[in-house]
Amino acid sequence: MPRTIQQSLRAGGRKLQVAGIKSATLDATVIIGFVLQKSKEYLFAHPENFVLPDQTRAINKRLSRRALGCPVAYLTNQKEFFGLDFFVDKRVLIPRPKTELLVEETLNIISANFKNQRVNVADIGTGSGCLAITLAKRAPNARLFAVDVSARALSVAKRNAKLHGVTKKINFYRGDLLLPLRNKRLDIVIANLPYLRPNQIKGDIRFEPRRALVGGHDGLKLLKKLFQQITKLKYPPPFLILEIDRSQMIAVRRLAKKLLPKTVSPIIRQTAFPLLKNAPFKKRTAKC
């Protein structure tokens, strides 16, 4: 006999709780709503409605993957960022709420320094394209340049740009940090580069692309490289906005003072990935 929505929610929540998923009830609700193509409000308002057998199979498949730690965003191919929905899969890092601070900082700089004039903004390590696309929608006077070393990640970013109707506002480049833009005059550079150490890859983030997470043995390899590239630019950007791990603040400030031209004003935002202390360390990215 088919299950009702209420039975499915209860069974899904229990399955994830047994697996040790802290957000078990919420995750089960999101997964079931995704499969049924119904909102959370609908699920709670119509608990007596039946779930079709093929829908139950699709739900159970995703619940099993979530129980292994696979992020919900990869199971639904969707993640909200700055009020916008983005397509995500295992080719890209999942956007984090704290990264929205980079958007806010950039918008504040544009408002204060480039009001009513064209501003060139480079998003280095664009991944899903969430930063560049959000800025393209929020800052009409911004011209965006989005760079990533991964062709697979750029495919996702371009898909999201098309989804949000900003393809013509963003120039995408594949390459090593700032090298594709070395002849451009940039006003603002934003960079959410890999900054974790290898021993920090634990918990759910082990399912995300390792290349987008690890920044060398100390997490600073790519930041150092970015700073060095900036020093070689004919027109160093006056504003540089970075996201780093909170434990790196002192080291990054020292690097910035040592390597960056005095004309560049670095704005450094701290964040931290939610790591599970007892999760097993795995050298390679886990599959889900």
Automatic annotation (TrEMBL):
<dbReference type="InterPro" id="IPR007848">
    <property type="entry name" value="Small_mtfrase_dom"/>
</dbReference>
<keyword id="KW-0808">Transferase</keyword>
<keyword id="KW-0489">Methyltransferase</keyword>
<dbReference type="InterPro" id="IPR004556">
    <property type="entry name" value="HemK-like"/>
</dbReference>
<dbReference type="Pfam" id="PF05175">
    <property type="entry name" value="MTS"/>
</dbReference>
<protein>
    <recommendedName>
        <fullName>peptide chain release factor N(5)-glutamine methyltransferase</fullName>
        <ecNumber>2.1.1.297</ecNumber>
    </recommendedName>
</protein>
<feature type="domain" description="Methyltransferase small">
    <location>
        <begin position="113"/>
        <end position="202"/>
    </location>
</feature>
<dbReference type="InterPro" id="IPR019874">
    <property type="entry name" value="RF_methyltr_PrmC"/>
</dbReference>
<dbReference type="GO" id="GO:0102559">
    <property type="term" value="F:peptide chain release factor N(5)-glutamine methyltransferase activity"/>
</dbReference>
<feature type="domain" description="Release factor glutamine methyltransferase N-terminal">
    <location>
        <begin position="9"/>
        <end position="76"/>
    </location>
</feature>
<dbReference type="InterPro" id="IPR050320">
    <property type="entry name" value="N5-glutamine_MTase"/>
</dbReference>
<dbReference type="InterPro" id="IPR029063">
    <property type="entry name" value="SAM-dependent_MTases_sf"/>
</dbReference>
<dbReference type="InterPro" id="IPR040758">
    <property type="entry name" value="PrmC_N"/>
</dbReference>
<keyword id="KW-0949">S-adenosyl-L-methionine</keyword>
<dbReference type="GO" id="GO:0032259">
    <property type="term" value="P:methylation"/>
</dbReference>
<dbReference type="Pfam" id="PF17827">
    <property type="entry name" value="PrmC_N"/>
</dbReference>
